[in-house]
Fold these 2 entries.
Entry 1:
Amino acid sequence: MIFFCNQHRGMMVRSSVALLALFVLMLSGCATGPNANPRDPLEPFNRSMYRFNDTVDRAVIKPVATAYRDVLPSPVRTGVTNFFANLQDAWSFVNNALQLKGEAAGNSFFRFGVNTVLGLGGVLDIASEMRIERKTEDFGQTLGYWGVGSGPYLVLPLLGPSTVRDTVAIPVDAQGNLVNGIDDVPVRNSLTTLNLLNLRARLLEASDMLEQVALDPYTFTRDAFLQRRQNDVYDGNPPDEAEPAEPTDANTGK
Amino acid sequence: MMKRRFLNQWLLALAASLSMLAVLPAQAADEAPDALINRLTKEALDTIQADKAVQAGDVARIIELMDEKVMPHLNFQRMTASAVGPAWRQATPEQRKRLEAEFKTLLVRTYSGAMSQAKNLSFNVKPLRAASDDKEVLVRTVIIGRGDPVQLDYRLEKTPGVGAGWKIFNLNVLGVWLVETYRSQFAQEINAKGLDGLIGSLTERNKSNAAANAKPAKS
């Protein structure tokens, strides 16, 4: 059920993303659909990017992730998940601190310390056994915390759902990703690939479910992603906007 | 003789008090919304834990359980109406009935897959922040299992004297409200093909889901 993990953000992309954001912003001038959703003015572009990602996923990524899941025993995959989540905790510490969230920052710091030292470099999640709560925060959330709006929805090539704000945050998250601090390029690339593959494998069931539960997977993904991001920025307490008012964003049917 | 009559009376009294007991929950003072969610979650998790058929992902059994345990506590008509949006007002009673039925099938069938994975979970209900005269409240819970805790929130409306006194009309999984997630999709269908088009799409999707689920499960 855990659809939209945030970990696919901090990656190798770096400067290419800034260029891409620029490119997309240039596109935004001309691309508006007939029933444009106010939060998705780039829908035509996003839809074609979604189709592209979906094609690549079906052809390559999903089959490889399925093989990965079928070959590696579950404890190994859990270890991989824990290892990268531990690195994420270090970056969450920084972002919790940037958001002046003292307790969460302390927890992230302590989690990273405990899991790195006692959990064999993060492979074992001892901190969760000790009931130290994980509060994952990335730089997009930090920007949101300080009042930066999410901007339009944006589907990135290969990375999938994002917003303009979160896209701008990607290079910063990439800097904060400890894997990117490794100088040895083959090691760094292998680790990044492993992280992504493991993430995709964890989402296999969710993505199968999406195909069943959605009438339009693009719209379903968008609406769920935007809500989830908003929820994350507000730590589970987003300002009430949806209920119980009449549906405002739905167009009147005839 | 005396003895037998006494026994008869006693049995009658017992039967009467037992039947009283059976209707008692319905007549009892309305439950607090957070207490209701607490009870329902506990029942659900206990059932999943105990029921081999549910754990094996038996869709028919899960649907049966949902109908019996969950549906009485949902205002599913309101959920459907809210997802359909303004077009609901123009819908005929027949269309409304079909929309409700197909939407329910879509949700139950899909989420039943997730139920089979819900083993060894615990949960807690967060303190309720609501005034005593609130007609609608938000109850927040956290499901704890392996991995990160899962946020699961409910919106309930007051239904004095009906059911437990409250009914759920929206739920939020990991920050995503169910009804809102369908609103744009439904609006798209209605704009393109009208209400009957939406009903058709839902029916079609349910048919293909049933066919896909009927295939032997992947390992």
Entry 2:
Amino acid sequence: MAAAQSETTVIQPRRRRLGSQRIWIAFLFTLPAFIAFILFKYYPMTQAFYMSLFNYKVANPPGVFVGLSNYIHAFKDPLNAQVWSNNIILFLWNLALGFWVPLVQAILLDEIRRLKTFYRVAYLLPSIIPTVATAVIWKWIYNPDWGLLNNIFERIGLPPQGWLNDPSQVKFSLMFPLLLGGGLSIFIYLSALQGVPLHLYESADLDGASIWAKLRHITIPSIMPIIGLQFILALTSAFQIFDQIYIMTLGGPADASRVIVLNIYYYAFERIQMGYASAVSVLLFLVTFVLVAIQLRLTRGEAQ
Amino acid sequence: MEKRKLSRRDFLVAAAAAAGGAVLAACQGATPTPLIVKETVEVPKEVIQTSVVKETVPVKETVESVSVVTATPPPAKVTQILMWDDTYAPTDAGTPGAKVADAMYADFLAKHPEVTIDFQPITSGTEIRKAFIAAHAAGNAPDLFYTYPPSMNPYWDQSFLLQMDDYVNSWQYKDKVVDALWYDALIDGHYFGIPCDFYGMCLVWRKDLFAADGLTAAPKNWDELATFGQKLTHLDKKQYGFGLLGMAWASWYYENFVWQAGGEVTKRLPDKTVELSFTDDAGVQALQFYQDLKYKYKITQENVLQDYDANVKDFEAGRTTMWMSANTSAPGFINDGMTLEQLGYTTLPAGPTGVKAAQIGGGYWTINAAATKDRQDAAWTYAVWRTDPNTWILRWQKENEFGQPPSPWLPVYKGILNQAEWQDVPQEWVDASNGTAKIARTEYIFKDKLEPYFAAPVQTVLTDPTADCKTVLVEAAKKMAAEGEGTVLAASAK
């Protein structure tokens, strides 16, 4: 009894030391990332909010304190209204042309038995091409004078199009390359698909369910959390789009593709209005935050 | 004996410590190694001052003595200044332009051993402004900077620029500078820069492509521009008569057409506000001409979103037969493979009422207000050397020696310096430069604030044949008036 008691007494303190050591080790592992986050994420965010309260002067910061004037100006600026609507329309085109493509490709890939690895590599490779390179290539494909697309159109008897040069076509043209799919999204969906229990499909087969019925009642509901996550990523990407616009159109023609981040860039570096640019970026952060929060709540509700 | 194994706990601790140490080491950063690039050959922006020479300063003897430099004892103190240079990339080392730049820098060092320059290559065009602003925010902006005229006001507003009254008032060539060139350097009655070099907008044309269509001279007015353009446009070959600029610098072209139509883009009113005058008849007529070039005469490229560099490539590749460019652009074209025989330069065509006008631009030497006094003095020393007439002469001589293509010099000084004495430049180019100098105008008031607003109306009329030019200009003017401090709408926009 005494020996058992002493064993018990010896074991308990060892468990407590292991627990505190684990916490300490975990803290040490997360510390570099935490420091990086503070330095490169939270400090700039705080600094941006601070700058937005001033008519900020780069050489002699911070300049004159203006309070919320920059925010009021952002709401009154008619160009801002157009710019926000451009981003929303680009997001809608993204949903129509690009959001569902990797999901379909992943579902089809999941069915393939032969040369599975080859197809996976083939779909993954395009994702390693930098966005800027892709944008330059598509800019040339869309060139109305010498581009590949109009060349093909002419050969098949169709009239040449303006593409990036046409205000009514530019947003569609910017999002059209998404139709080709590919990239990391396929693999995210593929991983999710492979986590769906096989017995659900077997039961459905026994009940005589069609392919569409299995898709609708088993596959999609099972991977809905991943779809929700991808939707959030698509939403934030649409509001933060910059590279393609900067390379391909610079916001033209006639501001038809001018987006929020390009506007921020313009006010910061063309007009040297750092305070106003910071205010618009804070507003962008708040809007994105609210949208993501709503989406997360909806996704959580569906999961429950 | 059992080998001592590293326990899992010890491994985790060691790995965490290593990661933390790596992060701390990375945070220190590497010591920056600036790329030392020798003196650039600023693409020559000069024209032979033939028609305005009143007296010639006997500088030839002085230049001959410049090349003979006797050794001097090393200075007590050497100040190094930081300078950005956008025309001599490391990859251009060994080219004629680079050799000219090296020779000039050697001359500077011989004359001013107390100053050395840390040249850093930097991008040019629209990107340089962003880099400059970021550098000021970081505290490592160059001590001496070549500032474009439209950038003078915004940089002054941000306190980037040193007030240079003391320096300029002691400068021996102050009163020799062409009066108009002080326009953007004088702000609130104080000097913030000295003119370095200037260019004037010309019509550049492909003589070989003109000849192929039976044309031997460039158009002299808008009507000829349209009719010549139609003759030169061959859609089967994707060859267009005239290259238009509709991208970020749209107003740089547009202002010339407004002046040629007899109007103004903006006007300074007696109460010091700036009227947005481009909504008047002349501004509308100029934009209508743009639209007609595209949809009525069909002589411009389809791609209105292409930038200046794409226009250059189109011209060099023969996809456009004429466009507007600086009188100093010839060396760039020749270095890219064009020949003297292909290149024609002439003054911009006259507008409907016979008015001729052309924009002049260029750069000022400005000094960093945040630099130390020593570095400011050293920067001034370099700026004065660079703008000295003897230095221009040295440059032309070195260009001859190393085979750098010549470029007409738009006169910066009144009554001194004749490029023709030192360099062979095709007479046609000289005539174009001199002719441009006579009709030259500095850019419109508030260009730095208003330029981005012009892209929308220009692109609208170039992408929509039904767009009403007056309507789009009034819309742009209202946006400008809502944002631009001190701007007011013209009566034509109300």
